[in-house]
Specification:
Layout: H1 10-24, H2 35-44, H3 50-63, H4 67-72, H5 75-81, H6 88-101, H7 122-127, H8 134-145, H9 154-162, H10 172-183, H11 189-202
The structure holds iron/sulfur cluster.
Iron/sulfur cluster binds at residues 162-163, 203-204, 209-211, 214, 216-217, 220, 222-223, 226.
């Protein structure tokens, strides 16, 4: 926490969470149990949209059905498979670097029962992989196993900052991730992540937020001036 910045009280977080739920509902996204898939998807999602990411992912799985094959393939095969996702030269290297940094059997299921935090926790393990930061680690932990972490992407950071949940101009990694985790009640990680993301995509745009139509305008210190 920086001087002059005061995190929001729990009652404000509760009120915003409740209003977001009224607007967007309670997201249902059961953990899929596949941390390797989540790791690769987060690499593929950089600087592209969801559709192109998914096309690249499906082509990769068709051409190289096992993660061992992806790890051991000539990089050109991986690169060609993920070409529709863009930045395929960098992403193919990154995917193989991550897979080659994992244990030989590529097993990550131990994370399901392991502590998330701490020096020996699963978050620290993931963040030590090449090119993996807090957002990717949080995606793997939350979406694969429903563990306590919350990804802060550009939408969550922008909306959270405008609503006064997060300190303006703070770095994504680690400050905003630490702050978001601290203010998020246990078992509300998925809900807050998804609903802040939805609000950022649908209403609280980076340029010209639709404040006049915003369901949070009565609760927002940035209404009309974001
Ligand atoms: S009132 Fe405007 S700035 Fe505030 S959350 Fe809504 S769209 Fe974003």
């Amino acid at each position: 926490m920086r001087a002059g910045w005061v995190p929001p009280p729990a009652r404000r977080v509760r009120a915003l969470r409740a209003r977001l739920r009224e607007l967007y509902g309670l997201p249902s996204l059961p953990p899929h149990g596949d941390p390797l898939a989540e790791l690769v998807l987060t690499v593929l999602s950089q600087s592209t949209n969801d559709r192109n990411r998914d096309v690249a992912y499906l082509r990769l799985r068709e051409r190289l059905p096992t993660w061992e094959q992806v790890r051991d393939a000539d990089v050109a095969v991986v690169r060609d498979a993920i070409q529709p996702g863009g930045l395929h030269v960098q992403k193919s290297r990154r995917i193989q670097d991550v897979l080659r940094a994992l244990p030989e059997d590529l097993g990550l299921s131990w994370m399901r029962e392991a502590p998330v935090g701490g020096r020996d926790g699963s978050r620290a393990f993931l963040c030590a992989l090449p090119g993996v930061g807090r957002k990717t680690a949080a995606c793997v932990l939350l979406f694969s196993y429903g563990l306590r972490d919350i990804p802060v992407d550009t939408h969550v950071a922008r909306v959270g900052t405008r609503l006064g949940l997060l300190r303006p101009h703070a770095a994504l990694d680690p400050e905003l991730h630490d702050a978001m985790l601290a203010l998020t009640p246990p078992r509300a990680e998925l809900e807050l992540h998804v609903n802040l993301l939805r609000h950022g995509r649908r209403t609280c745009h980076a340029q010209r937020p639709a404040c006049a139509a915003c369901g949070l305008r009565r609760m927002c210190p940035k209404v009309g001036v974001a």
